[in-house]
């Protein structure tokens, strides 16, 4: 036989039952490979996005201050969080609603080391990908079933989703007011 061409013979039931045992692991290996590929894409995508925001803050400080003047409060909060918590805020910024893009730019504006930021950002992207991709991969079927149920019973799902989104919004508004109150109250102690 030339090259790597193999003859194909139809298998009867007895022969198919005696097939090598490694064949039954092929679907698992393909799924595992897909999971790894998905995680790597999420890791490098998240890492690259935050690095871009960091360098935008580093090299375009004046542009950011002019164009994002309505976001001054968020930049102030991000700067306070960085001063207070340091490295952990770089790790946690992926999970902070409303500050996801502001914190890397705010860190870029400061004189924080780019190498330190890149290292912490890479570790953070790794953990973030594992936390978001792995459950979605293993529980994807259940999530799709839940979404199908919500689509059928939209009159129940809509108020629940609206209440959840309002709760997230209200929580972050309260957090923002807390930081503002804390910031304005610091001069009264002098």
Write the SSE topology.
Layout: H1 13-17, H2 26-59, H3 61-67, H4 72-85, H5 87-92, H6 102-109, H7 114-138, H8 140-152, H9 154-185
Helix pairs in contact: 2-6, 2-7, 4-6, 8-9
Can you describe this structure?
Helix 8 crosses helix 9 (154-185). The longest helix is centred in the first third of the chain and has 34 residues, at 26-59. The radius of gyration is 25 Å and the shape is globular. The protein has helices at 13-17, 26-59, 61-67, 72-85, 87-92, 102-109, 114-138, 140-152, 154-185. The chain has 190 residues and is mainly alpha-helical. Mean pLDDT is 77; it is low at 5-13 and 19-26. It has nine helices and no strands. The termini are far apart. Helices cover 76% and strands 0% of the residues. It folds into two domains: 25-138, no CATH class; 139-190.
Helices, by number, come to 9
- Helix and strand pattern: HHHHHHHHH
Give the number of DSSP strands: 0
Mean pLDDT: 77
Task: Identify the notable features of this structure and list them briefly.
mainly alpha, 9 helices, 190 residues
């Amino acid at each position: 036989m030339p090259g790597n061409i193999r003859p194909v013979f139809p298998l009867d039931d007895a022969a198919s039952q005696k097939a090598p045992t490694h064949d039954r692991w092929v679907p698992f290996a393909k799924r595992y490979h897909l999971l790894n590929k998905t995680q790597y894409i999420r890791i490098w995508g998240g890492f690259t996005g935050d690095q871009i925001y960091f360098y935008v803050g580093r090299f375009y400080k004046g542009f950011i201050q002019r164009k994002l003047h309505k976001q001054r409060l968020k930049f102030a909060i991000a700067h306070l969080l960085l001063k207070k918590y340091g490295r952990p805020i770089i790790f946690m910024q992926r999970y902070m609603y409303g500050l996801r893009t502001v914190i890397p730019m705010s860190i870029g504006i400061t004189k924080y080391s780019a190498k330190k930021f890149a290292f912490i950002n890479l570790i953070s992207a790794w953990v973030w990908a594992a936390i978001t991709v792995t459950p979605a991969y293993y529980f994807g079927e259940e999530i799709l079933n839940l979404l199908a149920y919500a689509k059928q019973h939209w009159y129940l799902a809509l108020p629940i989703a609206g209440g959840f989104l309002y709760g997230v919004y209200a929580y972050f508004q309260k957090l923002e007011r807390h930081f503002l109150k804390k910031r304005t109250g610091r001069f009264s102690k002098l």
